[in-house]
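For reproducibility, we list the full input for the guanosine-5'-diphosphate complex.
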Amino acid sequence: MKLHEYQSKQLFAEHGIPIPHGQMTMNASEAKSIAEELGGRVVVKSQVLVGGRGKAGGIRVVNTPEEAEEAATQILGMKIKDLPVRKILIDEAVDIKTEIYLGITNDRTRRCPVMIASAEGGVEIEEVAKTNPDKIIRVWIDPLLGLRDYQARYLAACTEMPREHWREFMSITNGLYQTFIETDATLAEINPLVITGDKGLMALDGKMVLDDNGLFLHPELAEMRDLDEEAAEEREARKYGLSYVKLGGEIGCMVNGAGLAMATMDVINLYGGSPANFLDIGGGASAEKVAAAIQIIIRDPNVKAVLFNIFGGITRGDEVARGILAALEKTPTKLPMVVRLVGTNAEEGRHLLAKADMETAVSLADAAQKAIAAAKAVEES
Ligand code: GDP
Ligand code: MN
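The corresponding predicted structure, in tokenized form, follows.
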């Protein structure tokens, strides 16, 4: 789950990281009064869950409350990378001397958190990694020991942080580490962390991604989810406990098990097709869950054919077949569908599907080729 900038910075502030005074709002006239309270010179910042807002014109520094209202009106009417802007953050403008990058994430290979800093702050870190990889400094953190002072000092030295800011920088690195650990985050990023002309260090931008699997431990964080920002399909999928990721291809996939879903996508690619989504209905899926999954898949206009790949263990083939038929009764579609069903009660399931004139397959290779051929036929018709 991604957090907005204003939410991330609020969590940072709770862990002692200095942030600019500011307030989130959804309307332009309130933006004006917030700007008045903040003294006139403010930054109006779109709150959308994508990076590069600055480049897209979604961040404006203005000098008066009137200008803030105007900028707010404009930004609230914008779309950034297809996302309509519904919220804006009005922050006091600060005088920036230097922009630094500071972030923390998990290094899966080393199986521990890694804190990353760079003197090339303000721009996207992925860009720096490509063009200037030696400007990225990393320290790996032993989760039993936590972030050590010498590690923070090393980051300060490598980013050429002036000595007078080291103590403050160490308090910020500690705050960021604590934020990351306590919220079960997978990413906590300050970009830019700025050295200001008069107020020391400050986190000007914030980005956090929380681990969905840890959210049940943090009901107060779970409530921060911005439902407006999610694709309707993803919301629906979560409601039914489905793992769904939309992709760009034309073959809709419904599979039980994440590993099997990945293998299915590979086989589709192998035969020259491309998957429209990753969808794992999980073990022991009920007919109702199957029905929800189908509706999510066929709502995607890119989908030209649907491939079901069900390996019955706990999941029963006849349950799945009933779910498919129930969903199709509720939401009829002309999309071709190929079902590969093996394992528990597969025979019974295939029988039910054959009665309804659906194409079935025994091997995955066969099923994938049939689905790809069907999708081509739809595209050409
Ligand atoms: P992003 O483009 O989505 O990463 O948004 P940021 O919040 O990082 O803002 C982009 C850039 O806008 C920053 O790197 C700064 O250069 C600039 N910016 C943001 N806030 C201020 C501010 O208070 N004063 C000034 N002068 N520039 C700012
Ligand atoms: Mn930024």
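The pocket of manganese (II) ion (ligand 2) is lined by residues 191, 205 (CB under 6 Å). The first strand starts at residue 2 and ends at 3. Both points were considered when choosing residues for closer inspection.
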